[in-house]
Amino acid sequence: MFKQIINYLKEKDWIYTSIEDKTVIILGISGKNGKFQCIINVQKLDKKIILFSMFSSNIPENKRVGMAELITRLNYEKFLGNFDMDFETGQVRYKTSIFYGDSLVNDDIIDNLIMTNILTMDSSLDGLMQYIYGELTPQETYLTMVSANE
């Protein structure tokens, strides 16, 4: 599966770094709304692929409870993936994953996993930054994000 994802990335001409002994791939993404890093972790024993898009700023301590509310609101409508936050560091990320078991995974499935993740993080960057540096409540920020994506 690791090699299949590498081949997918090569076909797309994406620049990446791979750590083969850990089956990890790191991508720098320059999206429409900003830059962020993605980490693809292929867990061979568990037969899972996990993709994280890392928000570029750690959330200030005084904004973490509100950010938890904001990402909970964002997660409610998601069917593939979710936002999470490390309360100790303030790191926010978006995670998509699949358990592939003995199934054949084609490039369409890989593309859906990766692009859903990247597009979700990219479309959320402005709202997340707006909450961190603005004066809106989590609910107001959420409503602004939803209306911007309609």
Strand order in the largest sheet: 1-2-3-4-6-5
Total domains, how many? 1
> Which strand-content bin applies to the residues?
25-35%
Return the structural class. Answer: alpha+beta
Give a structural overview.
This protein has helices at residues 2-11, 64-76, 107-133, 138-148; strands at 16-19, 24-30, 35-43, 48-54, 82-85, 92-99. With 150 residues, it is α+β, with helices and mostly antiparallel strands. The chain has a single domain, classed as Yope Regulator, Chain: A. Strands 1-2-3-4-6-5 form a 6-stranded antiparallel sheet. Helix 3 (107-133) crosses helix 4. The mean pLDDT is 93.
Topology (SSEs and partners):
Blueprint lengths: L1 H10 L4 E4 L4 E7 L4 E9 L4 E7 L9 H13 L5 E4 L6 E8 L7 H27 L4 H11 L2
Antiparallel strand pairs: 1-2, 2-3, 3-4, 4-6, 5-6
Helix pairs in contact: 2-4, 3-4
Properties at a glance:
150 residues, 4 helices, six-stranded antiparallel sheet, 6 strands, elongated
Summarize the structure.
With 150 residues, this protein is an alpha+beta fold. 41% of the residues lie in helices and 26% in strands. The protein has a six-stranded antiparallel beta sheet with strand order 1-2-3-4-6-5.
